[in-house]
Amino acid sequence: MLPSWRMWFVVALLAGAVQAQPQPVQPPAYQGPNGQGQAAYAGVRELRPLWTAKIDKAEYGQKAVLTAGNRVLLRVGGGVQARDLATGKLIWQVPGAELRATAESGVLTTEGKQLTLRRLDTGRVLWRTPLTDVYDVQVQGGAVYVTTPAGAQALSLGTGRTRWQFKQPELTRFAGTLPGIVFWNASQGEPHFPAVYALDGTSGAVLYRFGGTVGPLAAQDGQVLLKDFGVIGPDDRAELTWVDARSGQVRRKVTLQADFQCPGTSLVQRRGDEGFFAAPFFYLSDRCGTRLTQFQDDPKAKGDTPQAPLRTFAAPDDGRFRLGPVEGLLLFESWGGEARLIRATGDSPVNFNGAEMPTGAGTVLPGSGPVSRADVLGDRLSLGRTDGTLLAYDLAVRKAAYFVRLPWRGFGPTLRAGSYAVLTTVDQVAVVREAP
């Protein structure tokens, strides 16, 4: 089993040409606890599942549920099943297989000591290649990127043939691409501090490596944004760096004011993933998640001088930042489970139950009790709670779309495929049709 910190890092798919506009890659998701309770959704349409199924629990690098086209791929009984998305009808299955990734009209599995690509519609084998002890499999731009205990491999999606290998046992998972460049996250010895590698996309040769670093967080004008892990160092600042994507040469350092001490205690908490970027702002979650600060990306700012925040966000009742910004909104959760969307910009300051809120009191979402999981796919926020209810909220029109009630004690990631939503928990899956 890999160290638990590795699950923190972003699998950042920075595909395509480098954009002039910075591209954030912070994943819009939050995973919380499982439990039980009650919640009310007065006036919100309730949807019932079309079908449900039991699934196996997935270990690191494995997948329990994936969607592609009109298929949902499930890990069941130690093998892989392909079911019809609308009906749940079993289409094909492969015993003794592990679900890894989808690719165009295919699905990648590991079967014994082989990585296998199968047709999505029939399950027929397209190719196999020898591969053992897989940590991570990702598909992008006609290539399959695999992480193993020995290092990294790039395979042709069309044939399964190896394009190149890079032997480095500290690699943990693929972290995205830019034209001609592939990024990998790594574990830097004891006590497992993270590192970032940039490899040549054609040969796999090392372009550069940054130790004690998380990223890339964003790409802009041929540069990528990295963040210092920050476990060792001053607890009153966070440091980020724009580097040349190809050479690794440092272009600009950014230092942000911070306070990593938990309120009312002497505990200092730094996880390494507190900072992120959503143009034109940097964000920093500190004070054990009770505060979110927003900073303007100022190219003229001196890198060694900590910038003061433009806005400081908080929520009432010991609210904790969960995810955002999405559609210009930030999600906070109170100690009692109240979920609140707060605008990321604007000037409507208010003091609400002791919380200073610069853009207004925001909108409280239907439901109550601890949030188990929050995901954003497109303009839809899925908010699952520990009482087995899940709210789908339309961020574009600022309105609840529907809710689902299930005999579950929490949720995993929500997936969307066309007009369907696939809801998951640790050992079950349920499918609802979002639109008639």
TrEMBL record:
<dbReference type="InterPro" id="IPR011047">
    <property type="entry name" value="Quinoprotein_ADH-like_sf"/>
</dbReference>
<dbReference type="InterPro" id="IPR002372">
    <property type="entry name" value="PQQ_rpt_dom"/>
</dbReference>
<dbReference type="InterPro" id="IPR018391">
    <property type="entry name" value="PQQ_b-propeller_rpt"/>
</dbReference>
<feature type="domain" description="Pyrrolo-quinoline quinone repeat">
    <location>
        <begin position="78"/>
        <end position="169"/>
    </location>
</feature>
<keyword id="KW-0732">Signal</keyword>
<dbReference type="Pfam" id="PF13360">
    <property type="entry name" value="PQQ_2"/>
</dbReference>
<feature type="signal peptide">
    <location>
        <begin position="1"/>
        <end position="20"/>
    </location>
</feature>
<dbReference type="InterPro" id="IPR015943">
    <property type="entry name" value="WD40/YVTN_repeat-like_dom_sf"/>
</dbReference>
<protein>
    <submittedName>
        <fullName>Outer membrane protein assembly factor BamB, contains PQQ-like beta-propeller repeat</fullName>
    </submittedName>
</protein>
